[in-house]
Fold this sequence. Notes:
Blueprint: H1 2-19, H2 28-47, H3 54-57, H4 62-86, H5 88-96, H6 100-109, H7 116-133, H8 146-169, H9 173-200, H10 208-234, H11 239-262, H12 268-286
Amino acid sequence: MFYLVATILLNVIISVIFKLFPKYKINTLQAVVANYCVCVITGCISFGHIPFNNSAIHAEWLPWALGMGVAFICIFNLLAYSTRVDGITTTIIASKLSLVIPVIFSLVVYKEHATVAKIAGILLAFPAVYLTSHVEGDDNRPQNLLWPVLIFLGGGCLDTATNYIQLHFLSTPDAEEAYTIFCFATAASIGVVVVIVLLLLKKIVLEWRNIIAGICVGIPNYFSIYYFIRMLNSNVLESSASIPVLNISILGASALTAILLFKEHVNTFRIIGMAMSIIAILLIAFGDR
């Protein structure tokens, strides 16, 4: 249960930091690349040594880590682009509703138990996500369905792959930590190359405030991914329950934090959505008991 709660809290912290980016005129690309570099450093300090050694290079999970690292930075930039083009509400809904993909995968492939209560909770999660994400004044009509669909598929496949990798390749905490570091190292390597090219082309100017913002995001971001993997391995809930509970909890807690800290408008939709989120979490989490 610790890993579930910690993952939720860390994701809320990250969302709060990102919420402050416009206020301090943070360049998202620079901050995100710095964040990935900090994730690698944080992981190495937490791990107690640098895992870039011969045994890691021959580990079964290495190709998966490289692929996930590429997916990290691609999906993040897709989220940023979709937010700019289609609006934050559409992007959040597409991202969080992607929980259906790992749930279906767990139920079909791993034959996890599906009670009426759990199915009802998963179905209730869809309107809960939509209503909780509803912010008055935000245009929720996407200009191009391609980007929300790609986010839906990308986010769902990312969670599904993480669950699969944890189950088949990450049997020890050391393997989980080394894998997480390699994921971030791959994303950081790609990001650094992109930033260097943009600097040489004089498209951007490196600024310290962006690096500081990346440090603030990087530390909680590393542990949010590491604890997510540990949560899946803890078996506190079946994966068909843990991923929906996590996604809905992050969305609800982030919405509540935005209301309390940033005085976001509280409308009837959001109140109903948060109430439905609580019911959905209870049905999914305790539907098997």
